[in-house]
Specification:
24% strand, alpha/beta, GIY-YIG endonuclease, 804 residues, 6-stranded mixed sheet, helicase, 6 domains, binds adenosine-5'-diphosphate, binds zinc ion, Replication restart protein PriA
């Protein structure tokens, strides 16, 4: 028996509409509408996309007017029962709208875009302003196609009845064809072209060489550009000379790294690995939800445990969700997983195009996939029958989404583990204090790997005091100790990793005479120097301006850059060690798709001596020939206004030290710092996570911070600084009158970055003992804040991990 009403969450992210609406199911759709499908519904004066979250025969109260569903957008549900339940729970937990959570769970490609069909009416009068409309009669358009002036005109003409506008709702990606090229099969033609080519036509020569190696093959334009680095002008020339032919193909969009991996055999687990493995498998085989904290030093073989446990689970007919931080989802890691599981792996990361992501999602949805490897948002992969969830580097801040909905993938992973009654492995060499404390209490089961796998040993760590090292000498990024050790490695043909810690730190311009620092007028932040494009840029809003030659404040010409970036360090390296071959790895050099993979591959093949980079070099890389790791500036994060500062510093130093000495030869680490006595540095020097944990826990207890307390951050913002200050003070007074007396209220205070994208930000921090004790009150606060007119906004962040 089909139900006659559907509960629908409509695509309007506001507090007032954050509830299911009842729609009637018309007779012709009765057998088509299912829970978890997208539908098109009338809402107010508009038509919108909505998600069916429930079906019912219950007729709503007589006095409500029920509208009917217009059409169904899916043939099969895009959300299953589990993901629907998760969306409801998560919306509550992270104080987000249900619709926002639903859209986050699904790939972008399934978020409808709204398109319009414009039809001119007989009353339409052509004039200069409306000329552009003539070509659009009967055409499908998007609002973004128009200037705001044109939009106003359309709206006026619509009101006057000169044209009609009908809304169409479509998937962002329907059937997608891509531009592609087929290389000619005629080798003679190419040989002839080679002979006649002008000597300076390098790009065309390159294209011809590539073409001759791939006769008759088809490549999408994107692939061709990635593989050859040729300009589109060269490709056009190739087409006009008939070396290539243009095609439109529908190509299976698969991430390149997963194709044709070499198969790899399992290693024999050592005793500690075997013990961990067995406990995990016992939980899996008895269908028990059990979180494990796998605390294993760097190089102890955690990944081998994950992979073998995953294999067992797949063998037993269940599926595996494997999460790694974006930054550690290197081609190395993807290859390792693909090598064990072959084509039954799906990969989800931010480097994929929307289409690739959608195609991987559909493979999972269809049940073609046994193992999903991915970064944060992969936690929503539509796997069914999950038998194991792995969260590698569980301490990583990047598991927390920084925008709404502010979910934490580690939290979601635990929720899904419980739903499927499956074990969840949280793995790290430096667990978050929160997880380690839970293991202490027995909420998670602690599994320890205390030795490096194989024959490798942990590296020795030398701390260099930069205050002494730099006294009296000129500015440099290299202490004599570090420089000497790099030279030794170069002579021995071993490799070096250098870390430049950029968190909370950047190269900026400062006047040496008066201290003036150029700031961006929107955000009031010091702007970052970009040497390649010769400008100053704000990394938050993108504002950019020229580099000043004279100080605008005191006219001195001693205004120059301060601090350091990888580019500047690379330049210094070239000066002091001209023979060293250096690969630079940072956001600028890895923006282009495939460039990170290429850089790491080159380094692995020892085409370079030194890998210089930001946080990116700290995670997950496994190069046996690296015997020296240098940390150029260990303490730039210690000064951040955040109680996690020590924890983050300790984690980063430990992680990057872990890159040294992974092969036969012993490794060494040099840490340069201005705070050599800081406990985060001394514990990292001794590889003493447990010592750090106990020390830091005492400080957290004294300071009444997590994990002893739960925290909620209330973020307020407005375009007007006074308005936000006044409202935030009011909210604070209201909270004080409503909250239990043992809830600690900090603030209100301007946020460390007080002004961002023209908005002013304040924050209030709540600390309390029971995880959900204030949820109702906070929901109430959100309701009340909605009543405030103007631009004022309130955001509630549970367990904030950063305070910038
Ligand atoms: P982690 O993830 O803990 O940093 P990995 O799993 O990357 O450690 O292992 C580090 C190195 O040790 C890798 O090169 C891996 O191949 C090797 N390894 C792991 N387990 C074993 C084992 N049981 N026997 C020999 N080598 C191992
Ligand atoms: Zn000055």
């Amino acid at each position: 028996m089909n139900s006659s009403y559907a509960q629908v969450i409509v695509d309007v992210p506001t507090q007032q509409t954050n509830q299911p609406y009842t729609y009637a199911i018309p007779t012709d759709l009765l057998d088509l509408v299912q829970v978890g499908m997208r539908v098109k519904v009338p809402f107010g004066k508009r038509d919108l996309m909505g998600f069916v979250v429930d079906l019912t025969d219950q007729k709503p109260a007589d006095n409500v007017q029920i509208k009917a569903i217009q059409s169904v957008m899916d043939l099969v549900p895009v959300l299953n029962a589990e993901l629907l339940a998760l969306s409801a729970q998560l919306a509550q937990d992270v104080f987000a709208f249900r619709i926002s959570v639903l859209k986050t769970i699904l790939p972008n490609a399934l978020s409808a875009t709204y398109q319009y069909l414009i039809q001119l009416q007989p009353t339409f009068r052509l004039n200069d302003d409306s000329q552009f409309l003539q070509a659009l009669d009967q055409q499908v358009v998007q609002l973004t196609d128009f200037t705001s002036r044109q939009r106003r005109l359309i709206s006026t003409l619509h009101q006057q009845g000169q044209l009609t506008v009908e809304m169409l709702i479509q998937d962002r990606l329907g059937v997608k064809t891509q531009r592609a090229y087929q290389i000619t099969a005629d080798d003679d033609l190419l040989v002839q072209a080679q002979q006649q080519l002008r000597a300076n036509a390098h790009q065309q020569a390159q294209l011809l060489a590539f073409a001759r190696q791939n006769l008759g093959q088809v490549f999408t334009q994107k692939e061709l550009v990635e593989m050859t680095d040729l300009s589109s002008a060269t490709l056009r020339a190739g087409v006009s000379k008939e070396w290539l032919q243009v095609l439109a193909v529908e190509k299976l969009r698969r991430p390149l790294e997963t194709l044709n991996p070499d198969r790899e055999a399992n290693l024999t687990l050592n005793d500690q690995q075997k013990q961990a493995f067995e406990q995990i498998i016992t939980a899996h085989q008895s269908h028990t939800y059990q979180p494990f904290l796998l605390e294993g030093i760097t190089g102890s073989g955690k990944t081998e445990v994950y992979l073998q446990a995953a294999q067992q689970v797949v063998q037993d007919g269940r599926t595996v969700l494997f999460l790694v931080p974006e930054i550690a989802l290197t081609p190395q890691m993807i290859r390792r997983v693909s090598a064990r599981f072959g084509p039954s792996v799906a990969v989800l990361h931010s480097g994929l195009s929307e289409g690739e992501r959608y195609d991987e999602w559909r493979r999972i949805q269809r049940g073609d996939v046994k193992v999903v490897v991915g970064a944060r948002s992969a936690v929503f992969a539509p796997l069914t029958n999950i038998g194991l969830i792995i969260v590698d580097e569980e301490h990583e801040v990047s598991y927390q989404q920084q925008d709404n909905p502010r979910y934490n993938a580690r939290q979601v992973a635990l929720w899904r583990g419980e739903y499927h009654q499956a074990p969840v492995i949280l793995g790290s060499a430096t667990p978050s204090l929160e997880s380690r404390a839970r293991a202490q209490k027995g909420l998670y089961q602690l599994l320890m790997l205390t030795k490096r796998a194989g024959d490798a040993h942990l590296p020795t760590v030398q701390v260099v005091d930069m205050r002494e090292s730099l006294a009296g000498s000129q500015e440099t990024n290299f202490s004599p100790e570090l420089k000497q050790k790099i030279i030794e490695r170069l002579q021995a043909h071993q490799q070096v990793v250098l870390l430049l810690n950029r968190r909370g730190f950047s190269s900026f311009v400062m006047c040496r005479d008066c201290g003036y620092v150029p700031r961006d007028p929107n955000c009031n932040l010091a702007m970052t120097l970009h040497l390649d494009s010769h400008c100053l840029k704000c990394h938050y809003c993108g504002y950019q301006t020229a580099i000043p030659h004279r100080c605008p404040q005191c006219q001195s010409n001693r205004i120059r850059y301060y601090g350091t970036g990888t580019e500047k360090v690379a330049m210094e390296l070239e000066k002091i060690l001209p023979e060293a071959r250096v690969i630079r790895l940072d956001q600028d050099t890895t923006r282009k798709k495939g460039s990170l993979a290429k850089a790491l591959q080159d380094f692995g093949q020892q085409k370079a001596d030194i890998l210089l980079g930001t946080q990116m070099v700290a995670k997950g890389l496994d190069f046996p020939n690296v015997t020296l790791v240098g940390v150029l500036n260990a303490d730039t994060a210690l000064g951040l206004p955040d109680f996690h500062a020590s924890e983050r510093t300790f984690q980063l130093l430990t992680q990057v030290s872990g890159r040294a000495g992974r092969g036969q030869t012993a490794g060494e680490v040099v840490v340069q710092t201005f705070n050599p006595e800081h406990y985060a540095i001394t514990f990292a020097q001794k590889h003493d996570y447990e010592g750090f944990y106990r020390y830091e826990m005492r400080l957290r207890q004294i300071g009444q911070y997590p994990p002893y307390y739960y925290t909620i951050q209330i973020q307020t913002s407005d375009l007007d600084e006074n308005v936000v200050a006044v409202h935030t003070a009011q909210i604070t007074r209201w909270l004080k009158s409503q909250l239990n007396r043992d809830v600690i209220i900090l603030g209100p205070s301007p946020q460390p970055i007080a002004k961002l994208k023209k908005r002013y930000y304040f924050q209030i921090l709540l600390k309390f003992k029971k995880p959900h004790e204030n949820d109702e009150l906070l929901q109430d606060l959100i309701q009340r804040a909605q009543q405030i007119k103007g631009n004022f906004q309130v955001n509630i962040v549970r367990n904030p991990l950063t305070f910038m």
